Amino acid sequence: MPSETLVQLENISRKYYLDKTEICALDNVSFQIHKADFVVLAGPSGSGKTTLLNIIGCIDKPSQGKVFFEGTDITNTPIEKLNHLRLKNIGFIFQSFNLIPVLTAFENVELPLLFKGLDDKTIKNLVEKFLHRVGLMDKINEKPSNLSGGQRQRLAIARALAGNPSLIVADEPTASLDRKNAESIIELLRELNDEFGVTIVLASHDPMIIEHSRTKLFMRDGQLVSE
Q: CA dist 36 to 7, 117, 165, 194, 213, Å?
């Protein structure tokens, strides 16, 4: 695989069973994600975007096919090693923010860094660096309930970036925001993509977000229909 390839999927299928009925969420999907790219998975609800994001983000495994991360086949990697890979290499941004309500902005960004075993000074510097970068230093001691929707998503972005991931996976990151905040968040993600070279893969059916992407992957009924 070429060195610029971060993630490669080969003939990926994902099947679930509901009351003995087989549901094919992904059907023979293959593509590459290159380092520093900004990729949007586009398609209607139920097209397989979230399932594909979960496989790219090492949250789920395919029923068939192979997954490579930086040239290494991780398809059959034990869950413990996948957990370590995610902690080291992947940041997540969710539609519902997934912030911890009882923690301050500082503590929400700090939490995943504690699992990395970094010293207190390094953690403090990283947290403040990325809170400043997303414009939330004045909210450093506030809890999520005191933040607006746009501010909560900026906090989630700071948390995702602070661990210095090579990949950020975002599932409908602007779906719960108004248009102004949605545009602001996508503009911020594009700036961070350029500034830090972090690869970003997000799922959305919003035409504005699709327009901002470098690579567009369109899905329907669990299949990649065009690039």
A: 11, 26, 11, 8, 12
